[in-house]
Amino acid sequence: QYVRFQDAAAAATAHADLLLRPLGLQQLSYIAAAYAAAGHRHEPFLRMLTLVAADKMEAPRRARSRLAAAAAAAAAARPSSPEAPLTFRTACVMLTALARLRYHDGRLMAAMGRWLAAALRSGDVTPRAKWKGTWLAAALWAYATLEQIPARDAASGAAAGDSRSSTPTVPAAATATVTATATVAAAVPTAKTEVSAAGAVLFTEAAEAIRVDPGWIHLMDCREALWALWALKVAATIYNPAEGTAAEPAAPLVLRPLAMEVSYTPQPLVELQLLERAASQLDQLDPGQLAEAYAVAAEAGFGADRDMQAALRRCTLARIAAVRPQPLAVMVASLALLQVQDVTWLTALAAACRNQMINMKAEQILVVLHSFAVALRFYYLPLFHAAAVMCTLPGFARLEQMPAGDLVRLSAAYAAVGHYEAILMRRTAERILFLGSDATSWQRASVVHSCARLSYRSNPLLRAVATEASGLPPGPLALVAAAYGHLQFRPRGLLSALHSARVTEWQRMGLTQRAALCWSLLVLTGGLAGCDGDVRGGGGGGRSSGGGAVTAAAADFTDKASGADDGADVDVEPEDEDKATATAPTSKVSTSPSTSPGVRAGGNDSVQPQRRRWRQQQRQRQQHRQLAEALCVYLRALATTDWRAWPVSEHHHFQLLMACSVLTWREGDQQQLQALPKKEKEEGQLGGDSGGAGDIGASDNCGGAGGGDGGGGGGGGGSSDGGGRPLLRVPPAWAIMAAPLRGALRRLPAAATRRALVMHHRLRQAALGPWATQVADVVRQVLDGAMAADAATAAESGQTWLRNRIAYSNGIAAVAEAEAEAALLLRGATVTHGSLLCDGALSVDVCVEVELEMGLEMRSGDFHAPIKMLALLPVSTTESETITETETASSRALDDSVGHREGSGGGG
């Protein structure tokens, strides 16, 4: 069939005078309809066909003699002759065929539009037959569709038919005709003006005819009413007088009277009647046609009508089980465009999509997931799980059929609803890497950002994107920076690439993108974590040796700064801190110029790690200076911007302001402590040396926890370890960044900064408050159940809840319980939670106070025996029991946790 249509089109194009010009308009329209039905689009043939049809349409207008008019009247009796006049059906068939072939011809469209408008105005066409309503709706749909198709030949000539003369297969006679036609068309206005004028008049007359005679509406079924309504909606947009698209100032003399009346004014009554007709006939549509109604309603914008939505919802729920995958995808995409939030409607469609998932193609799965997740924010767990299975299951593997753009949308859909599928994320990362040059750096960056939102980390993909970070534009650069900051992953060379990109792309970035980049630099460098690094101390325990605080100060995130290829976490691991402590005291001696050249082999082995550690510390200081510079530049950008334009909806902006305030707050605490009298300082140091973890002043003095049982005071800022040897003190990160940040913060509007910090506290309270409430409720329920169980079983068996917890914990606890031979009765418990500010940052605590009845025979002076016994209670990741003797002890433990900023091990 293709060969037949192709050969016929080539022959008709080559011999147009013999094959096309002898035919009439009705025969030409039937030929165009045949090619449209076959879907065969041969542009040279269509160019010649529309040229001949336009010439025949304009021939009666150029006829001036009565002889030609008489000949045309005589030919009316012979409809099949080439001289037969144009009919309503012929014009509608021609326009519909051109619309289905997506071929735009300005001359023919304008001529057809003028003729149809004149026929409707004169009353020659009346709604007396069923096919007339069908062809009117088809003509309106075709004209609106052709108006939306860009005219390909508009740029090469003034008229739509000017480019036909460049076809090499056109004979000489046809070429002369085309040249003459182009010469005549040069005197008339552009084809756009003529087509717009004719279209506005056509839609005006059609709406008026429907308003005057409602019989037109009763001749249309549901699909035809939807076509007509969609066309009227499109015409109201295209021929809006305010946009100036219907008429242009340079209108010709012939069309100037018409140009004043070409604007189309919508008629709400006509549109309402068509909408009611379509809604009343929706039950007659099959699932495929119902999906078409969805698409038309969404595109035209009348799907928001309540009656239309109710009809669509009713018909969909009635036959949802019979809908195939393609109509389902169209329905879901249409509802996403309309932003429908009906839970019952969406749930039924999501369940149907889940059931049809095995029959869906890759592009259909992508449309469904993207519509539900990104557009509607509707989460249906079985649907997303089934899609992940179909994308990764061997034998189906829809993921292997997706290009890079589809992978971006797929990962974004799962990230939008927070649905974690490890296998799908891994296959997506492998697929985007496998595509290589077929995927752009922006697409790889988008996949990394989506994986980061799900907290999924693919090291090969992260390393590949890190190598491209320096050449990314501002948008993808901000996404990549935020992703690496969220994952706390820093491969080799990433930090330097981000700093260089910040220097080159800073002027092109917006405030939101700058905030994301600076926040990532803060996280990857460890600016705030460096403050906590002074707090944690060595070994990770609260009862550490005296060198613990010095370890944290001397090894300020050394391993993270080394940029290991595996991407170390932002936090320092305890064993690496111990190594840093071992090499820190001797690094200054080993790297000094006075080192003797005659060193033993063992000494040379220890020099290399010490030099490496010293270089790493120098690199850390340089990175902290670069971080301080980036933060100061961001704060200066805020100072030069109106506070109303600050990115208040971006959480990175709040976190940066909070981080800068915490850093400067810490420096203020240090200066305040240095201003204390000497006696108070010594008392603070003594408190730290004695192992008291509750001294806030001691912890703030050097930023570390107090000394351990050995009495080696590392918490008071001393210059020796537990053995009395001198120590090398390295300035922490906050000491490098605090001074420039304090000056930059002072330039910001105080009220705006305070407002941002208060809003940040409120957001954190809103996020952490419900969590603390849930934890407190769970603990309260457990304790209430324990008290009820103890009250019921204590008198019978003596096996109480608390006694069983101790007995099943471990052997030591069982021995202690057997030795004590005491009945532990839980008499009461109080659970409270609240938020507090610590160094300007917000934290939430849950406090548990337990009232116990313990039948112990304590010896004189042994007041801590019950507490030693209760210290053997098991602690798990899901629940923990905290027992305090009095309210004073509970308050002291709470002060402990505040003073050590969640980092020390001495808190309650």
TrEMBL record:
Signal peptide positions on this chain: none
Ranges of Gly residues composition bias in the record: 685-695, 703-725
Bias-annotated ranges (Low complexity): 581-597, 878-891
Lineage, highest ranks first: Eukaryota, Viridiplantae, Chlorophyta, core chlorophytes, Chlorophyceae
Name of this chain's protein: Uncharacterized protein
Start-end of Basic residues biased regions: 610-621
Biased composition (Basic and acidic residues): 893-908
Region (Disordered): 560-621, 674-725, 878-908
Skewed-composition ranges (Acidic residues): 566-578
